[in-house]
Amino acid sequence: MNELLEILEKFSHKKIAIIGDIILDKYIYGEVDRISPEAPVPIVKVTREKYVPGGAANVALNINALGGQAYLLGTVGEDVHKKILFDILTENNLSSSHILTDPQKGTTQKTRVIALNQQLLRIDHEDTSYLESHFEKQILANITSLPELDAIIISDYAKGTITQQLMQKLTTYCQQKELPLLVDPKPKHMRWYQNVFLITPNRKEASQMSHLELANKQQIETAGLKLQQELNTRLIITTGKDGMSVFGENHPLHIPTAAREVYDVSGAGDTVVATVALAISAGASLEEAALLANQAAGIKVGKLGTASVSKQELAEKLGE
Description:
10 helices; 320 residues; UDP-N-acetylmuramoyl-L-alanine:D-glutamate ligase; alpha/beta
C-alpha cells in the first residue's frame, strides 16, 4: 500500500471542477413504535433532522475532504433550499460562486426518512427539464475562467443540468486541453459520453447501458468490454459487495470490496469518482486509481447517509 499512500499525498491542491446536478439531501431520523390507524404504515416520531450536500455537491465535498481543490458548477432554484445548501457549502469551505440560479426550476431535494437503522421512505422534490441554452453557455464560460484545472468530473443524476450539447462541448474542450474528463453516468445519456476519459457506472447502470445481465464476473467482463468499445472510453464498474471491475488498456481487473460492513451505499459513487479523479491527476495509473477508490468506497459504505471520506481516513485505512 506504500505506493498508494504516495499517490494519496499528491492529492493536495489538485484542482478539480465538478459539473452536474446539485442536490440538497435531507435526513429525518425518528423512532417507530406503532402503526398508523389511518393506513398500514409506521408512525415515525421525529428525533432529529439534518441537511447535507448531495449529487455533484457531494462529489465536491469528497474532493475537498481528500485534500483537493473543488470547483462546483451547476444550478439551483431561487428558494429556501438554495439558502440552506449555500450555508452548508460555506460551512464546509466550498464556494458557491460558480453555481447559477435558475428561477424557473426549484433546487432539487431528496428527503429520506430513517428509523430502526433503515430507510423507510424517500421523497423527491425535482424538476428534470433540461437547462436552457444560456445556462449551458454560462457554465462553459465559467469553466474557461477557472485556474488551470487537473481534471473535470461530470456528475450526471439526470436532473437536467447535463445536456447533450453541454456534454459535447465539454468533451471537445477537455480533448483540446488534454484534461481527463470523468463521468458518473446515467444510462439515458449513454451516447453522450463517447470519447470521455472514464465513466464509472454501477452494476445496474452498466446492465442498462449494455442491455446485458451482470450476475457474475464473466458477464461483467462481457458488458464492460462492449461498453468500452461502443463508447471509446475506460470504465470502472462498481459492483457493491463484489467490489469493482476496471476496463482500461490492459486486461479487465476485478478488485474485491474493501468494506467491512455496509450500512448505506448512497453517495458511494460520488466517493469513487472523486477519488479516481484526484488519483489520475496525481499521476496514478487507472488500476492504482481504482484500488484507492475501492478503499475509499469501503469507508463510505460504513457510514450512514451521504457523507464524504477524508484524506486522513483513507491514509489510515491504507496503513492498516
